[in-house]
Amino acid sequence: MSTLLENHEGPLPTRAGQVFPGQRAVFGGLDLHQAFTHSDWLEVYLYGISGKRLSQAQLNVLQSMWVYTSYPDARLWCNRIGALTGSTRGTGAQALAAGIVASEAGLYGFGPETAIADFLVRAMEASRNGADLDALVRAELARHRHLMGFGRPVAAAFVDERIPVTLAKLEHEGIAAGPYVKLAFDIEAALARVTGKRLPMTYATMLVAVPLDFGLTARQSYLYLLPSFVAGMLPCYVEALERPAGATFAMRCERIAYDGVAARDWT
Fold first, then answer.
1. 17 three-class SS
2. Per-residue confidence of the chain (267 residues) as pLDDT tens digits?
3. Residue 5 within any structural domain of the chain
4. How would you list the strands of the sheet with 17-20, edge to edge?
5. Are 82 and 48 in a shared domain?
6. Measured between alpha carbons, how far is residue 77 from residues 74, 100, 223, 229 in Å?
């Protein structure tokens, strides 16, 4: 451990950037105020993640995907946290930070996106090497019992409403469906053949397939996703601030159906 620390002692080498107060700011090797003068925030954000300058059409699609999943419904897990933070008079930063952290939930947050991105990358490589897709799906189901990104718990039999508008946006921007998007639909078909059930892909799959097609890695796709629920969180926080403190999701204890350990005598 001491050798490791000794090897890294001293000035911090970085590719991220550096500020020269009163002169300039370097962002990923570029002058922030010159190279990004007319850039959207998303372009800067993605460049910081990946070092890539995506086309305007690609940026338009990725930004629209954030828009399409901005649901200001306080019943949704991350929005509920934002609303409860407002109800307890926490700060906006607390609401936003806690909501983003909750977005990483393994079952219903960015867990599925991370898992399906990993599988898409592995399945793409295996398919290009001649592997049978049905066999890949069977092997994945044997390992995990279900395939993340397919079968929406709240509306399992229906097409995710955000997928058609995303495909339409790709077409509008003159971008053909890429190999990962096509693979996602192929996996959906293979899953139906293997299980005998209709398990349509969820938006989690589209949210990673598109950035993968744009040249981002699985990790970079995950980082791209992190702010995607933000626009839906803060309206719930603001609305809770407009109610009396403690009045959001108020519920009597007797309304909770409980079948756990019986009441204990603490005396």
1. strand
2. 578 988 888 998 999 999 999 999 999 999 999 999 999 999 999 999 999 999 999 999 999 999 999 999 999 989 999 999 999 999 999 999 999 998 887 766 677 888 899 999 999 999 999 999 999 999 999 998 888 888 876 666 678 899 999 999 999 999 999 999 999 999 999 999 999 988 899 999 999 999 999 999 999 999 999 999 999 999 999 999 999 999 999 988 889 898 888 888 887
3. no
4. 17-20, 24-27, 30-31
5. no
6. 8, 10, 20, 11
Which residues span the domain enclosing 173?
A: 55-246
Judgement on whether residues 59 and 37 belong to the same structural domain of the protein: no
Same domain assignment for residues 124 and 204: yes
Residue 135 within a domain: yes
127 and 168 co-located in one domain: yes
The two structure tokens encoding residue 230:
């933000």
